[in-house]
Design goal:
68 residues; five-stranded antiparallel beta sheet; 1 helix; 5 strands
Length: 68
């Protein structure tokens, strides 16, 4: 799923994304662990992995969108 970074705090490496369906989902540094993502900026497009559904949806990983 693709989203746009809506908030990001460099110190805590946490923030939130706004999905293309209009849902804001928070993330913590844990979701960035194990990925090449070291920092993000507000407005940046990302690809997210999620688990759960409805009100229980949560981000499990955040990735940069790469063009091939």
């Amino acid at each position: 799923m693709q989203a746009t970074v809506s908030r990001y705090d460099e110190a805590s490496r946490s923030g939130a994304v706004l999905t293309d369906t209009g849902v804001e989902l928070p993330f913590s540094a844990d979701e960035l662990a194990g990925t090449p993502v070291r920092f993000l900026r507000v407005g940046q497009r990302v690809r997210i992995e999620t688990s759960g559904s409805g009100h229980g949806i949560a981000i499990t990983a955040v990735h940069f969108i790469t063009l091939h």
